[in-house]
Amino acid sequence: MFALSGSILAYAQDKPEPLVNRELIFDLVHICTVLLIIYMISSFILQLVRNNFDFRLKNKIVERQTDEQIVSQIVRPDKPTPFNSILQWICALVAIGVGFLIIGATEPYGLHSLAIMALCVAAGLVVYYFIAKRPKN
Q1: For the chain, N or C: smaller number of CB within 10 Å?
Q2: Distance CA 125, CA 30 (A)
Q3: How many CA atoms lie within 13 A of 28 on its CB side?
Q4: In whole numbers, what is the pLDDT of the chain averaged over residues?
């Protein structure tokens, strides 16, 4: 009876799940939260500056009574074409796929996996930038 209870107690120990690294998940959540907050704050500041410059430009145009054709060309908003938007998404998603392939090849998973993914997404967006800025012939 004592041997049976001893073997049951040996198996009753807490075994951590081998594929779930709680510290990594905790770090990833915090890193993503910090990046999201930084993005939101910087985009808010950028929007404020952009609105301020647009307001100042429109006031200068009104003060100088500029020709209507010139005003329509200057004030017209730059709208991205659907092709550019689709191209940007394709480049970003291909880069994410390449990032997952590299991460899968470099085990164990850790913070370097996050760095690999960030570099791949950045590389994908750089590729998009060079494709989009290429002269259209």
Answers
A1: C
A2: 24
A3: 15
A4: 79
